[in-house]
Amino acid sequence: MAEAAEAAERGVRRGGRFVEGLRAYGLIAGMWVRSTMAYRTSFVLTTFGNFAMTALDFVAILLMFSRVDALGGYSLSEVAFLYGLSGVSFGLADLAIGSMERLGRRVRDGTLDTLLVRPAPVLAQVAADRFGLRRLGRVVQGLLVLGYALVVVDIDWTPVKLLLVPVMLLSGAGIFCAVFVAAAAFQFVAQDASEVSNAFTYGGTTMLQYPPTVFALEMVRGVTFVVPLAFVNWLPASHVLGRPYPLDLPQWVAFLPPLVAVACLGAAGLAWRAGLRSYRSTGS
Length: 284
Prior knowledge:
By secondary structure, the chain is mainly alpha-helical. The protein has one domain. 73% of the residues lie in helices and 0% in strands. It is built from 13 helices and no strands. Helix 8 packs antiparallel against helix 12. InterPro entries: ABC-2_transporter-like.
């Protein structure tokens, strides 16, 4: 009974800590949003710039399809479907915690120390620091491409497939959030590894914009079993599009993205705690 009571007490403390973190995140992010909206013309221009930069990726795909009818056996509408799912999922994660990539800089110059003495979870502070509302441009661009794909793609829609689309978006955002946190935790050790992190975040979303059939099997295995980015869109989208599953996996894996997202977030949380405990300031 004593052990059960102690476990329950720990659960209550963790729940309170989580709520405290959300509150701190909301306050800090809100502060940066108010600061951003004080210069609305600048906000509009930077948001449009973010939109235009990400749109160039899809323009490149359109240029490829001006020369070919299919890419890896996928039509333009099917590639647009993959692109939209990846773009929106990553855009939501980047909007929420994209500031995590600055952690290496804070570790190097010692400014992370100022966050440690504040009465708020460090993860919430780092995630909300310099909250970039301009990143909405990426989300909007992804939504536009996804909307176009849903109109033109040839899919035999069922209730399960319809439900799977928003599940993919939310689960994919969770998976990308986990990658952001895990990459930030790695910077406690590497300190100057932002490019390594970008290979899995920005590089990962770029990879998922294309069909799995254009990549080597070793690469597909890596993003399925090592860093499970394939669960963002490749596997569930295969069910929606009626395409063969990568690596000949069973069909039920298309419904695993929520569980994969939870597992990834849990693992990233453990990595973050381990990295934060190992932090010893700059030594200067």
